[in-house]
């Protein structure tokens, strides 16, 4: 077992949720406790700007930063960053690491917080196997080359990520044909079905993971995309062929060109991408954007009941503690994209959950009652369409919902893609430069 002098607060995942929690805990944690901030990668990355980094040369350097004790914690600290190291197993009072820390791969804790987020294909998020930042940067540079080279792009899924990707491509390549195939009557995921009324016979989702998006915003975004020559195929789904394991590199020719083999990224030539409504779109770059997958495998292996079957999200109670049956439910919290706390999976809510968990961990130390998580009444969404265009809305308590145009979205998000908010995360003795 590792050094037992301290009572450890283990945080698994050092991205938005985990890193914010560490920052919030540092000033309020009593003596004798220390934070162990663990990540599978040796660097931090910033998903909010990853789409531009996949297209615009130079941006790949802006979205990765070193992740070390000296960049995260103040001088003379007892807190530690352990990276790159994957947590491989959860036990009631300890976690198991893939590499030893202080002479052991098993590290005991007072409380542990799972903040392992979600997985999405690169370029949106790096593979957890790309432990060095050079590997992710290399993948982003490859993506920049491929998008430059392709003749015609097909985006499967017109949610916020698909739309923002289209906007980034259009800003760099004004004439490349772009098509979005989306299974709704307009872009994004607006409320097109009736809201659950709470009737006795009605099945209410356990967690409302993707609350509907303001319909007016969805229509504004669809008009904006059309005005920028983005072809929209709505109320339809692309048919994604299942790839056989030994398919790699084999080109299947048909009389009318190449048949799409279901792979993503740059294709060997223009392919036919078919939809359920029998539309055929020609493209030689396919971008898949149909949501993210909670990174909850770690907890599934230790306590399958702690994960929702339908969504893969970790089940938490009102205090953000994991509802566990095998693992002790007194010891673990889950926050950020991996938790089933209701609401969108966005950085803003990950920050609020981190603050709530920090308060409750210190309440537990002080033997004071725990507080229920409260996401607050502020709501809103900003959808950037490249650096200069976009649309959004904010809902302010008692004042109502306000639509926002390109000017505000450009200033608040589009130009810098929130990179200026990422820098202040690092509160370590070693200063790191954010290239904005
Ligand atoms: C393209 C894109 C655009 C977005 N735009 C916006 C936006 O404009 N505004 C907004 O608010 N949100 C946006 N989001 C969402 C936002 O990025 C996420 O909500 C946020 O990153 C969630 O943070 P997290 O810490 O929960 O998870 P993640 O950011 O997914 O981080 C999880 C961390 O856990 C680590 N990890 C995983 N498994 C292990 C393990 N076993 N052991 C150790 N470490 C592990 C990973 O390496 C990673 O560092 C966007 C997301 C994407 C992909």
How would you sum up this structure, described in words?
The chain has 436 residues and is of the alpha/beta class. It has two domains: 201 residues, FAD/NAD(P)-binding domain, CATH 3.50.50.60; 141 residues, 3-Layer(bba) Sandwich (FAD/NAD(P)-binding domain). 23% of the residues lie in helices and 24% in strands. The strands form six sheets. It has a seven-stranded mixed beta sheet with strand order 13-12-11-17-16-15-14. Strands 5-2-1-9-19 form a five-stranded parallel beta sheet. About 6% of the residues have low confidence. Bound molecules: flavin-adenine dinucleotide. The site of flavin-adenine dinucleotide (FAD) has 35 residues, from helix 1, helix 2 and helix 8. This is FAD/NAD(P)-binding domain-containing protein. Keywords: FAD, Flavoprotein, Oxidoreductase.
């Amino acid at each position: 077992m590792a050094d037992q002098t301290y009572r450890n607060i283990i945080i698994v995942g050092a991205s938005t949720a985990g890193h914010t929690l560490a920052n919030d805990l540092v000033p309020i944690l009593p003596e004798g406790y220390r934070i162990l901030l663990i990540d599978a990668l040796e660097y931090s990355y910033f998903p909010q700007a990853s789409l531009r980094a996949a297209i615009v040369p130079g941006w790949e350097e802006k979205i990765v930063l070193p992740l070390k004790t000296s960049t995260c914690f103040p001088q003379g600290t007892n807190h530690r960053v352990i990276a790159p190291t994957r947590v491989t197993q959860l036990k009631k009072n300890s976690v198991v690491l893939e590499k030893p820390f202080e002479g052991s791969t098993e590290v005991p804790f007072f409380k542990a917080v799972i903040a392992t987020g979600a997985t999405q294909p690169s370029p949106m998020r790096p593979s957890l196997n790309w432990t060095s930042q050079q590997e992710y940067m290399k993948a982003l540079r490859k993506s920049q080359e491929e998008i430059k080279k392709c003749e015609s792009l097909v985006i499967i899924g017109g949610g916020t990520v698909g739309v923002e990707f289209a906007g980034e491509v259009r800003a760099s390549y004004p004439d490349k044909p772009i098509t979005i195939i989306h299974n709704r009557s307009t872009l994004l995921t607006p409320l097109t079905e009736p809201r659950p009324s709470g009737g006795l016979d009605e099945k209410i989702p356990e967690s409302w993971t993707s609350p509907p998006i303001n319909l007016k915003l969805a229509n504004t975004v669809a008009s904006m995309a059309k005005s920028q020559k983005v072809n929209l195929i709505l109320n339809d789904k692309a048919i994604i062929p299942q790839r056989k394991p030994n398919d790699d590199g084999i080109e299947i020719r048909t009389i009318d060109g190449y048949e799409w083999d279901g792979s993503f990224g740059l294709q060997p030539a223009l392919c036919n991408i078919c939809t359920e409504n029998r539309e055929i779109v020609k493209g030689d770059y396919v971008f898949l954007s149909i949501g993210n997958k909670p990174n909850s495998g770690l907890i599934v292996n230790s306590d399958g009941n702690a994960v929702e079957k339908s969504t893969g999200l970790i089940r938490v109670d009102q205090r953000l503690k994991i509802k566990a049956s095998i693992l002790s439910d007194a010891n673990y919290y889950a926050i950020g994209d991996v938790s089933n706390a209701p609401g969108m999976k966005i950085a803003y809510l990950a920050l609020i959950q981190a603050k709530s968990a920090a308060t409750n961990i210190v309440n537990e130390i002080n033997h004071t009652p725990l507080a229920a998580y409260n996401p607050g009444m502020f709501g809103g969404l900003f959808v950037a369409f490249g650096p200069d265009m976009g649309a959004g809305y904010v809902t302010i308590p008692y004042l109502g919902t306000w639509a926002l145009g390109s000017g505000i979205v450009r200033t608040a998000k589009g130009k810098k893609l929130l990179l200026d908010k990422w820098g202040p995360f690092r509160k370590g003795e070693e200063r790191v430069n954010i290239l904005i």
